[in-house]
């Protein structure tokens, strides 16, 4: 029985270590930002295939980096309503029902679950001296289709072919079904000062360097909103910098995204990895015999301490961290 449980545990460890070492470049970027250690995926890859002292160190460092990142990563489900992904490459799956829309005090419609978050943001902006002016909020697919078609028709009247008119329209209008505004979780806002004094188009990236734009960049997260399309991230978001386009994701996720300077897309990728890893840990805890578990933890800790000469408390972190350590120490044993 004990031997069978031990074997099962090692199988699970092997599965788990493969997951842990399969660190993507995106993840490493955020790890590098959040810690002083910079373990590249190349290092991690090579260390999983050799057994030198150096590579074992690199493996332990990789595990520690992961743990640091794990600490402040929000607990989310990819099915959370506030994490819906709609954009140029992600057509909306199902539109928000009319009864789920709520009216803001300025008359605009948004998902009713974010009405109070926006009102609080607007109030704080006002207190800080940057009263907000809303330019756009929820837009139905039907409305997007209307304004898209109107532009196409106007271009056709100006002598363009239909194909040409559609091509030009796509440069400035989001295709119906592909706008984040369909979700009711996105808004376009500027401040009163920009609205009154700026000449030219209202939604211009110059707003980002104004006091109001800077205030939003620094404080929107406190109310659950992110600046959805940051500067220099077009490759990932497919959309240029838009300091006015705010997206609700909830306070915890917004804080993580802004502090780690990742895009929403990158956050979702990281979330998928975290969830996969957590599921692997959970299935291990469900299957393993608790007594066997204790035996393995104790043995592994002793070995870890002997090998690395690190203080016991350094190795005694949370359960998840401990598990990550076990994964590496046990796997080394298997390979030898
Ligand atoms: Zn927008």
Number of extended strands: 6
Structural class: alpha+beta
Task: Please write the CATH class name of the largest domain.
Answer: Alpha Beta
The overall pLDDT, averaged over residues, is 76
Q: What's the number of helices? A: 15
CATH architecture of the largest domain: 2-Layer Sandwich
Main pleated-sheet profile: 4 strands, antiparallel
- The domain count comes to 2
Named CATH topology of the largest domain = Muramoyl-pentapeptide Carboxypeptidase, domain 2
Question: What's the arrangement of strands in the largest beta sheet?
Answer: 3-4-6-5
Instruction: Give me the Rg, rounded.
Output: 25 Å
Question: In a few lines, what is going on in this structure?
Answer:
The chain has helices spanning 2-21, 25-34, 41-47, 53-71, 115-127, 141-157, 162-172, 192-197, 211-219, 234-237, 251-260, 264-287, 290-308, 312-315, 319-335; strands spanning 101-103, 109-111, 132-136, 186-191, 225-227, 245-248. The protein has 336 residues and is an alpha+beta fold. The chain has two domains: 2-71 and 289-335, no CATH class; 81-262, Muramoyl-pentapeptide Carboxypeptidase, domain 2 (2-Layer Sandwich).
Index terms:
two-stranded antiparallel sheet, binds zinc ion, 7% strand, 336 residues, globular, 6 strands, Muramoyl-pentapeptide Carboxypeptidase, domain 2, alpha+beta, 2 domains, single chain
């Amino acid at each position: 029985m004990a031997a069978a449980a031990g074997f099962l545990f090692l199988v699970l460890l092997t599965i788990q270590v493969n997951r842990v070492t399969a660190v993507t470049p995106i993840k490493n970027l955020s790890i590098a930002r959040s810690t002083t250690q910079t373990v590249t995926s190349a290092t991690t890859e090579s260390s999983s295939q050799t057994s030198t002292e150096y590579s074992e160190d690199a493996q332990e460092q990789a595990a520690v980096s992961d743990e640091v990142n794990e600490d402040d990563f929000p607990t989310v489900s990819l099915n959370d309503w506030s994490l819906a992904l709609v954009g140029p490459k992600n057509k909306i799956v199902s539109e928000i029902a009319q009864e789920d829309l709520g009216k803001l005090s300025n008359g605009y419609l948004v998902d009713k679950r974010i009405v109070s978050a926006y009102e609080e943001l607007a109030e704080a902006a006002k207190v800080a001296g940057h009263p907000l002016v809303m330019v756009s909020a929820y837009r139905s697919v039907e409305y997007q289709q209307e304004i898209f078609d109107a532009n196409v028709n106007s271009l056709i009247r100006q002598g363009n072919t239909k194909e040409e008119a559609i091509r030009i329209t796509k440069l400035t209008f989001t295709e119906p079904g592909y706008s984040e505004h369909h979700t009711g979780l996105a808004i376009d806002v500027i401040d009163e000062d920009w609205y009154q004094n700026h000449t030219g188009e209202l939604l211009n990236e110059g707003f980002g360097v104004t006091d109001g734009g800077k205030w939003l960049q620094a404080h929107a997260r406190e109310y659950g909103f992110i600046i959805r399309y940051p500067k220099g991230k077009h490759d990932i978001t497919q959309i240029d910098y838009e300091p006015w386009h705010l997206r609700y994701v909830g306070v915890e996720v917004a804080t993580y995204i802004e502090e780690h300077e990742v895009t929403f897309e990158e956050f979702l990728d990281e979330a998928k990895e975290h969830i996969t890893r957590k599921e692997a840990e959970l299935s291990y805890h469900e299957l393993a015999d608790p007594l066997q578990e204790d035996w393995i933890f104790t043995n592994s800790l002793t070995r870890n301490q002997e090998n690395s000469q690190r203080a016991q408390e350094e190795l005694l972190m949370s359960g998840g961290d401990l598990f990550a350590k076990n994964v590496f120490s046990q796997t080394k044993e298997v390979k030898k």
